[in-house]
Amino acid sequence: MGAIQHDLFQTEPVLPAGISLMRGRIDLEDGRALLDDMLGVFAAAPPYRLRMKTGAYVINQMTNCGSLGWHSDERGYRYVDRHPETGTPWPPIPPRLKALAMQAAAACAAPFVPDACLVNLYAEEGKLNLHQDHDEKDFAWPIVSFSFGNDAIFALGGARRRDPVQPVTLRHGDVMVMHGESRMRFHGVKKIVPGTAPFDHPAIPAGGRLNLTFRRAA
Ligand code: SIN
Ligand code: FE2
């Protein structure tokens, strides 16, 4: 008998109450079908670059589906009912994606019907600064996140910006729900890990990652 090879085991992070991580909840076949649906969303609502209040561009391209979509420009952060560049209402959330988001929330005893889905497109060098999702009307509703493509080192913080941050790897097919006492945690994306995606797909930026966050904004 050889020595126990501890390095063969990958340990999962211990997550706080209200953060539910369903590893690989979306299998490879379903993932492809859902990503195909996203190509329809991109045709109706082309990904674009948002600006912050300062006028600086956000690094990731973004778009939305649902009756409301999150937008930011010199006037600040808010939900709007149409694509600011095309003037066309956001396309509906593809039914299979919406159903899966509702199932995930219900599995966490936080049932909801999302009316907004923010699509974040991360290129290889993509990242997202630490922030709180606080533009929704009622924080009792959860946030549901789907990840596709390369792994992300997600930063999970606390209630205050200065609280310590825990790194959590989000992989292709992972579903995460932020609910209850963790709904308002600060969070962000530190970096994308190259070469970790199981396949390429035209909906995922080359060498990057696609994240969907489902919300109830109104
Ligand atoms: C977000 O907070 O809007 C996206 C998080 C992620 O990309 O995992
Ligand atoms: Fe967020």
What do these coordinates show?
- With 218 residues, this protein is an alpha+beta fold.
- It has one domain: Jelly Rolls.
- 14% of the residues lie in helices and 34% in strands.
- The protein contains two helices and 13 strands.
- It has helices at 28-44, 95-107; strands at residues 19-22, 48-51, 57-66, 69-73, 76-80, 116-122, 128-131, 143-149, 151-156, 166-170, 175-178, 187-193, 209-215.
- It has a seven-stranded antiparallel β-sheet with strand order 1-11-8-13-6-3-2, with helices on one face.
- A hairpin with a 5-residue loop joins strand 2 and strand 3 (57-66).
- The model has no long low-confidence stretch (mean pLDDT 95).
- The structure holds succinic acid and fe (ii) ion.
